[in-house]
Design brief:
By secondary structure, this protein is an all-alpha fold. It has helices at about 1-20, 40-45, 55-65, 65-75, 85-95, 95-110, 115-130.
Length: about 130
């Protein structure tokens, strides 16, 4: 009986001894060379000069090529930049009082996104270190 208890204790201690305290997933984001730059589409959209809609649409469409199309066609549903009525509908959307109220609220709560950007970059750097092939 004493031998069985000693054997179980030895196996248990051996198992615990083999456990590492450090996680293999623990990484330091400073070790990654990944860089990221963020841009505020909401502020770029709001700052459009509505007297020069065609030029402003082309500017935003070139700055945010895939997102601008997605946003205009699927989210606010004002059509694509090459549609005839696109600038008309976009201008009306930007002057809508509900949109203005939502934009003002977002700017009040999310004016500075430095903390969010830092967390996002660190998360992407960790992902890049753990899964470099992805």
């Amino acid at each position: 009986m004493f031998r069985n208890i000693m054997l179980i204790l030895f196996v248990a201690l051996g198992s615990l001894w083999g456990c590492k305290k450090e996680s293999r997933f623990k990484t330091d984001p400073k070790d990654s060379l990944l860089t990221m730059e963020s841009h505020r589409f909401d502020q770029a959209l709001q700052s459009m000069d509505t007297t020069k809609m065609t030029e402003e649409i082309m500017r935003l469409a070139s700055l945010y090529p895939s997102f601008y199309k997605l946003y205009c066609q699927r989210i606010i549903r004002v059509g694509l930049p090459n549609d005839k009525q696109h600038s008309f509908f976009l201008k009306h959307f930007l002057s809508d009082t509900i949109y203005q109220e939502v934009y003002d609220t977002v700017q009040l709560h999310f004016r500075d996104l430095t903390g969010v950007e830092t967390d996002l970059v660190n998360g992407l750097k960790r992902y890049n270190l753990l899964f470099p092939e992805k």
